[in-house]
Amino acid sequence: MTPATGTSDPRSPLRTGLLGTGPWAVATHAPALAGHPGVTFAGVWGRRPEAAAELAAAHGVPAYEDVDALFAACDAVTFALPPDVQAPLAVRAAAAGCHVLLDKPVATDPVRAREVADAVALARVASVVFFTLRFATGPADWIARQAERKDWFTARAHWLATLFTPGAAVSPYAASPWRGEKGPLWDVGPHALSVLVPVLGEVTEVTAAPGPGDTVHLVLRHASGASATAALSFTAPVAAAGAGVEFLGEAGVTALPDWGPAEESFRAALDALLEAVRTGVPHPCDAAFGARITDVLARAERQLGAAG
Question: Do 29 and 80 belong together in one domain?
Fold first, then answer.
């Protein structure tokens, strides 16, 4: 991979645009883009022009009604959009020569996710998928250390949220239509897999079963021979909510450390994109990795559908 034709001098800040105007864009993407010394916040596009104008004005950057005009003004773009809105736009961005910082999951359709990975490869642009824990300071270092060991026996992950739990505190993400439709498998499932896969290897087998409410249970077999389980929910009891991952093996049990604010992790993801642009070396969390995660989740979803 080499930087795209038309990319500015790698010693200069990367002109970076934002696609999306929802809570994730407002709270995480825009502040990180505005404050990162390695990028120039180049503008905002959204499906609601009035929201794009408001967010752009808050950061003193242009708002674009034509997404292709934003691509033409940028070296890179970040995505804070629903996955199946993101995917076709990411293909267009790559074709326009823009490096891409994608949200997880890349898509909920394996074909669309593979189209993104293929478009990135064809255009020879850099790609990073923002799996939060892979860029959070404590967890990122911890994951790298666990990946160096080859004697893991099994692992267990849980992501038990209260997004749709009656009586729980209201989250701005509860109004997200795609989360309501696709559930925890697609929203928090990528978080669990993004920790398990780099340590235990690619998923070779997946079994999925429903639990109470919208809970999903996964049993995974990995290329290393190790197995793992994951429990995912948006309707957990408030007192039972939480997230974590443990690896168990010859050395005992080790647990995922706590992590900081999402904006901090997103700045690290921007650093990773800049490094991939500068060196031409693909990041481990690139679009191809994102496509493989989508494939695992789609296989699990088909099993859940067959089970009714």
Answer: yes
Number of domains present in the structure of the chain: 2
Q: Is the pLDDT of residue 8 over 60?
A: no
Dihedral Cα 115, 121, 122, 126, nearest 10 deg = 110
Arithmetic mean of pLDDT, 12-39: 96
CATH number of domain containing 189: 3.30.360.10
Residue 76 lies inside a defined structural domain of this protein:
yes
How does pLDDT run across 139-167, given as a tens digit for each residue?
A: 999 999 999 999 999 999 999 999 999 99
Helices marked H in 149-283 — which ranges? 177-187, 189-200, 262-279
Burial of 239 (0-12, 13-18, 19+ CB in 10 A): exposed
Say yes or no: 126 and 272 in one domain: yes
Confidence band, pLDDT 50/70/90 cuts, at residue 11 = low
Are both 94 and 155 inside the same structural domain?
no
